Amino acid sequence: LYAAQGMIQEAVSANEQAISLAPTETPNYVAGSQWLARMGRFDDSITLLSQGFRKVSDPALLYGAVSTLQLQKGQSEKALQTLTDGLGELGETTDMLLAMGHYYENRGNFEQVHERYSQALDAQPDVADVHIALGDLYLLTENVDEAIRAYRQAITLDPATPGHYIGLGNAYEVGGDVRQAENAYRQALVAAPTLADAYLRLGALFQSEEKWEEAEATLQQGLEMSPSSGALLIQYASLKLAQEDTEKAVALANEAVEASPTAGTLIQRASIYTAMGFTDSAKADLLSALAIEPAAIEALIGLGDLFKTDGDRETAETYFTMAAETLPG
Asked: Is pLDDT at 234 greater than 90 in this prediction?
């Protein structure tokens, strides 16, 4: 409730109380770490997750979450060591294999990703999360038909989870079937009527078809449900920019960063500024994003592109090199 209203510090405090009451529940540590990371407190987030290693019955998700945070900080070697420690303690459980796959996905090593996910599938073919992971991999490697099959299998195994329909809709959209994509996003809303991501996807889909009224109505409905959703506000800003209402676009983008001052939101606002020709403001946002998340690949590439456009090839090359080092694949 606090998080939905943008009251992140209050959300963190409430979560601390939840952990004190139920110190063996994995979701409490994961949720608390997410709120801390949203505030840019990555070290505190990692510490919280690490505290749960010896308290929860299955800490695989915690090892995976710590590894992800370390990757966001640009600490790839530490991230791999965290997962190695988890494998040493827990063995090749499904969750640990998925976490290893996620690590290699972040590093751009898709061969290793496929190997880990295939091992997880062989071990537990009836776990929906395994099929979702494979669907995500197939989509990244532009194998749309296989992605659709994987997402559909996940839905068959677990029809109540709205995120599965989001994955399916995204696959249909990439494949060019917008009506099936729309149907999938609407199914996500049937499963979770307040899901911000579903409203965002539908709004963006309508925007891509230049159905301006439907796009705006969808985004406004989503914001009624989740008024502090930075992603929804950014998408609304993008819509207003497409309609050439630049004043409203800037106001919405600023509101998004106020509601959700994360690296991702700053990167998205930078894209709005870039489209409007405000390159200095875009650079400032991307640098702020890197201060929060030093390994943010989109920020590094974005800065490289901006400096290249400005004719500063030396600085552009510096950021492109940093991006290549962050994601060697």
From this structure: yes
